[in-house]
Amino acid sequence: MIKIDNLHKNFGKNQVLKGVDLGITEGGIFAILGPNGSGKTTLIKSILGMVIPDKGDIFIDDTPIKKSWKYRHQIDYLPQIANFPANLTVKELIRMIKDLRNKPGDDAALVTSFQLSPFLDKKLSNLSGGTKQKVNLVLTLMFDSPLIILDEPTTGLDPIALLELKKIIQKEKVKGKTVLITSHIMSFVEEVADEIVFLLEGKVYFKGNIDTLKEKTKETDFEHAIANLLKENNA
Ligand SMILES: Nc1ncnc2c1ncn2[C@@H]1O[C@H](COP(=O)(O)OP(=O)(O)OP(=O)(O)O)[C@@H](O)[C@H]1O
């Protein structure tokens, strides 16, 4: 579904991606991990065409994304930081995003799952951080696209919302969707991810499932296995 060849991206002197090669097959949940600043968001934004790489190619369903934009209709994206127009109500924002995408969106079940009904007529500026994140998730997950990209979806969520999010992501996977997630919450990653893609030093340092990672690092616990990857590299 996604193929990335030798991707490079610099921001000035800061070489963030230094030859990323990655293949993501269709169907399943893939966690993109790595220390702060390792380039996870840069990689995601490159896939979305929001960051233009200096070198390398990205293919989605065998088509290069360069100079193309139509492929983005097939992607539902949750940005790490969402900037909502403060004066709109939640209901108005949901309607606006549906109009903008010109696609039917099924928000009702998500509003129920995240217990957002009492907030529908409230202005976005009056919502708490966690409630804003739930709205952000509704805006992303209400469309039925084959590829879902979630940048730090767990930020600010309470335990009930976190449980709902896990259920929703698993349901999407069962439907055959491909889900890319970044998260610093290792327990969440361990529960949902089929595969780990670990970025370090601008490259994919490890790709595989959690059992393989544990074997490779000789750790029985996932969090320690990840820490071990970093130690191994002296990062
Ligand atoms: N638009 C930009 N202009 C300049 N530097 C940028 C820009 N976007 C990202 N960077 C830099 O690129 C590096 C990678 O950032 P990125 O946000 O991709 O990392 P990340 O792995 O997602 O980090 P985190 O775990 O903290 O979210 C950082 O050093 C960051 O400062």
UniProtKB/TrEMBL annotation:
InterPro entries in alphabetical order: AAA+_ATPase, ABC_transporter-like_ATP-bd, ABC_Transporter_VariousFunc, P-loop_NTPase
Keywords per UniProt: ATP-binding, Nucleotide-binding, Transport
Cited Gene3D superfamilies: P-loop containing nucleotide triphosphate hydrolases (3.40.50.300)
Domain ABC transporter: 2-226
Tagged with keyword Oxidoreductase: no
Xref: SUPFAM superfamilies: P-loop containing nucleoside triphosphate hydrolases
Domain of life: Bacteria
Gene Ontology terms, MF aspect: ATP binding; ATP hydrolysis activity
CDD domains reported in the protein's UniProt record: ABC_DR_subfamily_A
Nucleotide-binding in keyword set: yes
Protein name listed in UniProt: Copper ABC transporter ATP-binding protein
